Fold these 3 entries.
Entry 1:
Amino acid sequence: MAEQVGTLRRAPLSRDRILRAAVALADGAGIGSLSMRNLAQDLGVVPMALYKHVANKDELLDGMIDVVVGEIDPLVPDADWKHALRERILSARQALRRHPWAPLAIESRSMATPAILAYLDSMVGRLRAGGFSADLAHHVMHAMGSRILGFSQELFDPSRQAGRSGTAEPDPPAALPPEIAARFPHLAEIATAASHDDASVVGPGCDDQFEFEFALDLLLDGIERLHRRGWTSRHVPR
Amino acid sequence: MAEQVGTLRRAPLSRDRILRAAVALADGAGIGSLSMRNLAQDLGVVPMALYKHVANKDELLDGMIDVVVGEIDPLVPDADWKHALRERILSARQALRRHPWAPLAIESRSMATPAILAYLDSMVGRLRAGGFSADLAHHVMHAMGSRILGFSQELFDPSRQAGRSGTAEPDPPAALPPEIAARFPHLAEIATAASHDDASVVGPGCDDQFEFEFALDLLLDGIERLHRRGWTSRHVPR
DNA sequence: ACGGTAGGTGTACGCCGTACACCTGTCAAG
DNA sequence: CTTGACAGGTGTACGGCGTACACCTACCGT
């Protein structure tokens, strides 16, 4: 029985276990708390042990991103391109919202990971299958930008704070502090004026999901119009 | 004459001199090389001297962002809202392209700086003056997202590499490496298929400026349509 | 002449990523 | 049963980071 003690005391390390622990750490304590030392401690191991499974911290981050991307639902089959893309992008958004550190991590890495490339590739494939020219598909992918992965990098985004817990407390009204409101009257006006008033559950604050879908549909509708009229980049776009 | 030696040897430090040196360092050596120690060395001073003028590194970054934002042209007067916004956003884009580190720096800070708030406020003001409801203006600002500051955070962006010089070499064709092209056929297809073929100066590569304006006009046209028909968020947006 | 103060200096601390040598348990080949 | 290779966890150490804190020094208004 003694021979089992070693294996019972601690599950053996593996790349997968490391990645999942890293994601959990970043989710719970913020990406700022993700250090090789902290991560090793969570795993009950010495920091250098990690390097037997991941090459370095950058590769660790890439692996974490792939974990998140792996949570995105597959394309729904048997739907027109617009509906298929819309649903999948909203699924991506849900995945990324579970991991608030992910958008910045994705944008910091200079090259996309294979998992992201596969995701993008499938989206392009769906466009092509829907009759888009390679030319228009190209521009569409650019126009969507990071929105195609479900995030849009708002200019103020309190959830991006370093040490925040991942649990989504509804973030109280958060109107502008008065001295700021006084200096920037137009911002103050629109900060509260977003009237999602038919569903006042949301209160006077700002409904992120609504804003995301607003922009997404603005783009999809515009793209649909271009597609219908057989747009190509030979025409000037306006 | 000896009493002048001290002042001749080195210009006195100031917050402004520090910020400009920091921007120059980040432009030239990449944001990854911007450390308090490197910056102090460039200024011929000991690292801790900087802290008499900036509170900490985060505040230094905020100051650098404000330098960049200060380079954006003011709103052109006497133009319809669409033209005014479009021109100013393209001006912002030019400013940010001179400082490739700026987009990521802006998105990393959790709260916007006063200069950014002033910029956004003026944009909202222009929309309101153009007859937009506070409600629609709110959604428009969200829909534009970081694009209103002239960048859209592409998913691959080689210029975001850490140690790159800021001088814009045209970035040679940069088609996908063959083993990647094989795994992601749709990406490979659209990577080269963007036919800006009427002006083949650009070659087969991808014209960032064109892509940016494509997405910008897609959004502006959609926004114009909503504005014309008096859209409010009481209606479901699709 | 002098005391306060603004601004540059030196030292030190705790954190980071990770190179490198080392140890240990497992397992296949002889 | 011995042996030796090897996968995987350990310990130590290095250079770099941001910055707290005590200090020094030159200037300026009284």
Note: Residues 12-13, 45-46, 48-49, 52-53 of chain B lie near DNA strand C (CB under 10 Å from a C1').
Entry 2:
Amino acid sequence: MSVIDHPDAKAFILHWGEMGTQWGVNRSVSQIHALLYLSDRALPADDIVEQLGLARSNVSTGLKELQGYGIVRRVHIEGERRDHFTAETDLWEMLTRIVAERKRREIDPTVALLAELSARLAKDDSAPRHVRERITRMHEFISTLGNWYEQVRGLPKPTLVTLMKLGGKVARFIPGAGKPSQK
Amino acid sequence: MSVIDHPDAKAFILHWGEMGTQWGVNRSVSQIHALLYLSDRALPADDIVEQLGLARSNVSTGLKELQGYGIVRRVHIEGERRDHFTAETDLWEMLTRIVAERKRREIDPTVALLAELSARLAKDDSAPRHVRERITRMHEFISTLGNWYEQVRGLPKPTLVTLMKLGGKVARFIPGAGKPSQK
DNA sequence: TGCAGTGTTCCGTTTTTACAGAAACAACCG
DNA sequence: CGGTTGTTTCTGTAAAAACGGAACACTGCA
């Protein structure tokens, strides 16, 4: 009955958990996410506890974390008192939300710091030229990436999909981007 | 004299180290990278040990890791016996190499697993439909992203920069991608 | 062949993080 | 009220990661 009972589903959940750890997300959190992603119905926390063998407290904080990313939401089930949870199943949506949140948590503060350092270095005669230049370049680079993301993120999903499928061929359509002659 | 002596350089290195930990890279490794990035000359391992206060063994493995990513390389200094190391200073190059390597290490194996699971599920009548469908969709999604990356990665750098600066406006140039009328 | 300089690998310790289980606390509702 | 559900916090423990130091390997030179 439970998703976890199917060996392939289980393999997916375990792998997803490991993936998480490699990207700085803790194993329990990503396992919970995988389980909800595979499930066709919203699950109460107790079911998650049972299927993944985690402590209730862990599941609670894990769910909160996932809701913080906006990829899991709490739903009310008719006639049920307990909260139930479902995962976002639109993968584009899932990805953009994760990226948006990580940007907010990690990139934005970094850009802020780099801005500060750049500003201070600009009027600091004692600073070695390379240090100033390299930090400034890093600041510009990350800012540019961030701005690009904010813009692309706003595009309608079908456009994103088209762009993605185009792959490297986008270059053809861009005036002044050179011929698409390269390998 | 040493880069680390400048407070802003030091702040950068420390922050970079923390950033690393959030993305699954260990602190020492990213600190070494930051130090080399800021340095205008190649450094021998001993200097890194001294400036960052790490053990020799750590620096050795850290440098190996960074070379594995292709963002640090060993250079020979005229008249010196010791190996010296420099970091990639072209940030585009740095980013694409990091992404390429993480894809190779983490995404590719994931896609391989998903392919296997999808294949098996396709002929497994006992598998719940949702599980089959969701795993297949995930497989397709990640494959598409991977293929997109491989293509974009091959574009010449100036083209990439142009595309990046265009931001969301790329959509305008794509026939059949809809009007760029959305927010 | 021995030795000094350099670099890597291994091993034990420390530090950090994740986790379960319990308990306190809060809401909600009959 | 008192039962059910949910969150938060705390404690101890276990697992994992990071790390330093020493042992080991290699090289070139005297």
Note: Chain A touches chain B through 67 residues (CB under 8 Å).
Entry 3:
Amino acid sequence: MTKRPMLPEDHPCQTCHVSAEALCCALDADTLSDFRNQGGNVCIAAGEPLFHQGDPADCVFSLTSGVIKLNSILPDGRRQVIAFLFPGDFVGLEAGERRNFSAEAVSEVRLCRFLKGRFEGFVSRYPALADARYRKAAGELALAHQKIVMLGRMTAAERLASFLADVHRRIGRKESNGVKLIPLPMSRGDIADYLGLTKETVSREFTRLRASRVIRPRSLALVEILDPQRMQELAYGIAA
Amino acid sequence: MTKRPMLPEDHPCQTCHVSAEALCCALDADTLSDFRNQGGNVCIAAGEPLFHQGDPADCVFSLTSGVIKLNSILPDGRRQVIAFLFPGDFVGLEAGERRNFSAEAVSEVRLCRFLKGRFEGFVSRYPALADARYRKAAGELALAHQKIVMLGRMTAAERLASFLADVHRRIGRKESNGVKLIPLPMSRGDIADYLGLTKETVSREFTRLRASRVIRPRSLALVEILDPQRMQELAYGIAA
DNA sequence: CGTGCCGTTGATGCCTATCAAGGACCGTGG
DNA sequence: CCACGGTCCTTGATAGGCATCAACGGCACG
């Protein structure tokens, strides 16, 4: 993170690690300070909901740490995870009066919260913020299009490979020896609901990727990529 | 359409039937006239491409009549129709340097074309236009989320019902006696690629909807809804 | 050391894809 | 006017991939 010298040393944004990608980076220091005073910090434990389908959408959030999943649930209980959100992502781009999906913390999560009305005021006063918001939405739209292709036309193996490649791109780490690691804070069931599969199928595909030496699980929540090229081929270079 | 008295009688926007939903409606008459001079009209015959995957994205379009499909094609030839676009929809919200998908006319199509650079200039000069663009993108994002649920968790029958309900909402007509009609300018193969199915499955599901008296096809391209309630139930009220 | 949750593995079945053939529609040309 | 070929749609037979049902195993927790 780049320091922002105009801010007081104890300003919460001083310790934020996502200013590079977050919406806030569209604002200069003075404005940012003003902006931050509009909302507050939120911290949510793993498994706890942020909001539910149908709730009034009266605030928006910027995710600073942790992972969130967005769920859509059909009347008969079938569940689809629409997206996993990572630090730097924004919650509330959809602009409806009510939430079309629920949001739940996958791991412990920190967010900056802004009241929607005040946020809108900022957007109209600062064109750079409006532009950043549009570009976030456009980026989300492109991701959604890729996910549509994945769900419509890919096999189970390809879906899992796309997912792993995508998570690696977003929150992957490299060890000092160059080994690529993928943290997987979400459960197998969550992954299944994200990929349009069942947890059993996801489990089987994990086993097959391990058997074919493409990945090596260090634990349930941490996977090492042994063969990045094969992984990219399976995913057709598309990060789901 | 509402007349725009400030425009010259022969101005092309005077005969545009989509000003209510189109992006242009964010502009007043003076600005609109200026705006329209930036681009030009385009007319494309059914089946002809507007652009291809990978092309430089140097212009954006507002669709005024006809239907367009957006295709994404995997290296091995599998095809997914990402969206059908109807009059009032906008092409080029994605904001990338290159096209992530191809666009092809399903029926004869008319569009207003704008050079991207000049369009961006207008967006930065007219906040109302920027806002309208954001709301279009947010709306597309919400639609994409619904489509993700459909592709991830719905059966073939539910997918087709969702599709028919959606097309009806967008371009459906009512006869004087109240009968609801759905025009289907796209082929069965296009519908299949949109729903993540094969044309054979789509055909079979059409037959089953007909057999159970939910719809009555007048021709391949025009379907009458006999039982709107049953249709909505099958689609879970979700327009795909 | 149980208990419970989550993940894995196995057996079976169903939904949709695939392969194949026939039918409807349309434009062209005899 | 009808024969003809082509394209798209429909219908049938079969196969395959993933879901479902069921049992087992690992790990954390009290």
Note: The interface with chain B takes residues 72, 74-75, 78-80, 82, 93-96, 100-101, 124, 127, 130-131, 133-135, 137-142, 144-149, 151-154, 193, 195-196, 236 of chain A (CB under 8 Å).
